[in-house]
What we know:
Blueprint: H1 2-24, E1 27-35, E2 41-46, E3 50-56, E4 60-67, H2 69-74, E5 75-82, E6 85-92, E7 104-111, E8 115-120, E9 125-128, E10 134-138, E11 143-149, E12 152-156, E13 161-167, E14 170-174, E15 179-184, E16 188-192, E17 197-202, E18 208-212, E19 217-221, E20 227-234, E21 238-240, E22 246-249, E23 252-259, E24 265-270, E25 275-279
Amino acid sequence: MKKLFTLSVLVLLFFFALKFVSADDLKTLKEETFSSSNGKELIVTMQSGDVKIISGVKQEVYVKILGNDNAKEYYEYSSKNDGGNISIEVRLKKSAGILNNVELKAEIMLPSEFNVNVTTSGGDINLSGISGITKLTTAGGDIKCDNINGKSDLTTAGGDIKCDNIKGNIEANTSGGDIKIKCSDGSIEAKTSGGDVKVEYSGVNYGIKLKTMGGDIRLSVPTDFAANAELATMGGSIKTDFGLEVKEKNGKSKAEGILNRGGKIIECSTMGGDVILSKLK
């Protein structure tokens, strides 16, 4: 039994090693640099693969597409520079059928003040250090953002959404993952069909709406946060640091009240988890 366990562990380590080696061995399929400037827009459309975008100091957009041999054979790349507005597309060739073992990745560097619109059919999206309007959509991967200033619209069909140091309005939606946001100075609307929602918010109240069909909701706000609160759960419990009265009936718990003279509505609702409203530490 011990030998069998050891063999199983070695097999697992072997496959993990293969995965990391293949990721490190991705080849550069395309590399381009476009003249641009602050205030322009980047549009990225990928039928598969991860997208990573960071800010740079130059007034240009640098694009690098990486992939394995299958990606090189079956995918094609196109680009357009329209007065500094950059469009990138990576798509299947018409001759390609159903593909396996395809690895694709886009790495992009652009000016720090830029609008970004990214769509990928199956990969992760990572965005960092950008000020502008952001729209990120993936059919099955995770979305990660940090140091973003501006309106953010984030959607994934099945992955997690994680945001750190975000300023501005946020809409975050996932069909099955968790949502974790640290943000300030904007309205928040976050919804997941089956995961947890955790939000740490600082600044003025512009309205907060959090909803999950099966997880917990944890919202932390400043001690002097002014709001009208509406909290509800079916099957879970409600806890709050703000002295709201919790009413329970037929398995449903509700808490409504005014925080610090009242303000925009903060609404938290879940069908099967707990709701915790706490003071930001």
